[in-house]
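From the pipeline queue, job 12 of 40. The input is one protein chain; the requested action is below.

Action: predict structure.
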Amino acid sequence: AVLKSSSFPADEPSFFKMPSALFRFYAELNDFLPPEKRQFTFRHSFQGRVSIKDMIEAIGVPHTEVDLILVNGESVAFTYWVKDADVISVYPVFESLDITPLLCVRSAPLRETRFVVDTHLGRLAAYLRMLGFDTLYGNDTKDEELAMLSSRQKRILLTRDRGLLKRSLVTHGYCIRETSPRRQLVEVVHRFDLSDSIQSFRRCIRCNHLLQPVSKEIVAEYLPPSILAIHQEFQRCTSCGKVYWKGSHYERMQEFISRILAENGA
């Protein structure tokens, strides 16, 4: 990616004209814009004192998608008050360029990659747990609670609801573009560069808690004889008690994970 800004063009006389700024959004941030504003510099008029965060979201881009904002060539925070004739360039996350010295929009990255997933992405939540990622999910969790969990527990909020990502409580989030759960998983692994962090089959897919090895004798009374006759190694969830073993489902899941990694170049 190349960091650049545009010059403010000559314009008509400013009599009775509202203040305005020039905006340019880069890369995937254009997904949130109407066609006529994608990949173009455009003017946005405003009234009164408006923060750059509020203005970016009024245009349609959730603040959680933004990693760098340049105003007249200088990096600014979300609290910057937009001025008439400002030239504003807005960038998403950079994957191949270290821009840490320029960042102003967030105080620091999250130390751990942990997720909270909204109610419409249940299959994605199960897939992330299968890969070993701490992922909260409830099929009846309200938007206010999702935002609160994301803020208080320092979790990345995954959703397809752009309005949810615009809540001020949410500092780390991502708008899922894909509709297929499998493609959503590929998207998240790529977006957060998770390939090297995968520790599959360490969490309960049902409730997200960690699994621990358990002896065959302890779980014998809960499993059919046909399973006990074939398998010797078992794991049990530390919370809900669900028992796991390496059956045919395990082999299918291993193949699934291998395909996900291959599609992410790992």
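Job complete. Residues 248-263 form the longest helix (16 residues).
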